Write the structure tokens for this entry.
Amino acid sequence: MPQPFSQANMKKRVSVLVFLKGTTAPLVLYVENPLGLYEELSQVLKLNSPTPKLIEKNTIGPVKRVCILSTSICAVALQEEQYM
């Protein structure tokens, strides 16, 4: 018999959303330390260097490895979501 949805069955996870220039949907990354990745990418935005830097990360979600050019990032965000 299926159990009803309840707060007790729900878990939370945090993902990092990376918004890239020229795209409408963000890249959703699941990593061990989402706050650390958020801080790293927001620092890249603060530096605003015209010289591109290649950023490579291993992830634990559907996207297993990602490679992004620092100059193509226009925003980052943390997203908390519930799942079962």
DSSP finds one helix and five strands in the chain. The chain has a mean pLDDT of 92. The CA atoms of residues 45 and 74 lie 7 Å apart. The first strand starts at residue 11 and ends at 20.
